[in-house]
Amino acid sequence: MAESDFGVNVSAARPGEVSVTIEVAYRPPTDHVPKGWTLEASGTFVAATLLRVETPDGIVHDEFPDFAQIILPSEMTYRMFRKFRDDTGLEQHLFELTPAMILDAQGRPARFETIQRAQPDPDAVTRWEVACPTSTPGTSVMVNGSGADRAEALRAVVDNGLNLLHSETPDAGPRSPIFVALGGEFAWVRGFGDPELSTSDLAQVVLDGIEGERRSAVERAAAFSTRSSRPPVKYSTQSSSVTQQWNRIVAWLENTIPNYVVTGADETRIADAQRRTGVEWPSELIELFRCVDGLPREPWMVLFPKYELFGLDAMLEDRAMMTDIWQTGDAENDPDRVISTTAGEAAWTFLDEFIPIAGMDGYFLFVDTRPGELNGCVTVFDKVNSDDAGPQWLSISALLDDLATSLETGTPFDGGWRHAIVDGRLEWGI
């Protein structure tokens, strides 16, 4: 972290995505360091204009609405913390900003003459930066400057990178990382510790690293866009095999409830049921009914905490009832409403594409057969808020995986439900 003419510059400690959190704290500053975080820097500055977060490529991020609450001018006391997620390796930055109003002699906000800095001509100079870890764990050193053009800036990066590495970590091997930046682009590169590489070779290493980071940034942006556009799923269990997960459940039932026999539907019954729904079924839905066509009536019990598992007949009957009730009401009350045709998005009604696989008293688990990335997801439907709760599991196999794990290990299922065997039957409680 370093101060520059343009504000406070913060660089990532290693390659990868960085998460930034900013807390505007209206309380006296303290020396407390949050558990698991490392204090990287602290200081003060005067905020005379609205604060903003800007990346080296000139993009201003407006995800921090608390900046607008700061009364200007204010003296800002800042502390910057850093930590790394053990599970994902994500680098996290936390900025704590404590504002103190600057008042004039009359007790009014002081007036500041803000200086408009001349912005450098990007065609005239190229800013550069080099940083490398030191021999002290968790610390690094950085130098920066500008060159008359990109070629001069590149030469400065190579020269300063070599000097930094040799002075700060003289025993570094050929794979020791160096952070480099040219203009608004940056990368972590390796090779500065390799004595066989010439300065020309290292210049190419820098350019290749920046080009690689550029491609990675595009891929990350595309991945983030995909994640942002996809409706969230409550449980993160991944899809696998319906048959595999159902066999785990059957094995548990056989060991726990004597003489409890579960059978599936034949291909003719499944094909007829699918034809009667008038929609195309995901393969996992077909596979489910091959495994189980409803549970035995004796002993009667619910496989899920709040829902009775349906066979084909019960599914068709309840689906016909729900589509009739909800779609008739829609036609009468809001005939012009536009309903989403993408799986996982709330429809606020019971669509033909919803296939209930379990239910009780007007509440259902249904499979969403609409097209889209979440085709086949399992969603909750209730008689008050319809499908507002959104997708719960990515697929039937993910649902069954969670259920099987809960039955086998006793861990909570679906938000805290635990099972017990009472009088020879499965029961659930919170």
UniProtKB/TrEMBL annotation:
<dbReference type="InterPro" id="IPR037883">
    <property type="entry name" value="Knr4/Smi1-like_sf"/>
</dbReference>
<protein>
    <submittedName>
        <fullName>SMI1/KNR4 family protein</fullName>
    </submittedName>
</protein>
<feature type="domain" description="Knr4/Smi1-like">
    <location>
        <begin position="264"/>
        <end position="400"/>
    </location>
</feature>
<dbReference type="Pfam" id="PF09346">
    <property type="entry name" value="SMI1_KNR4"/>
</dbReference>
<dbReference type="InterPro" id="IPR018958">
    <property type="entry name" value="Knr4/Smi1-like_dom"/>
</dbReference>
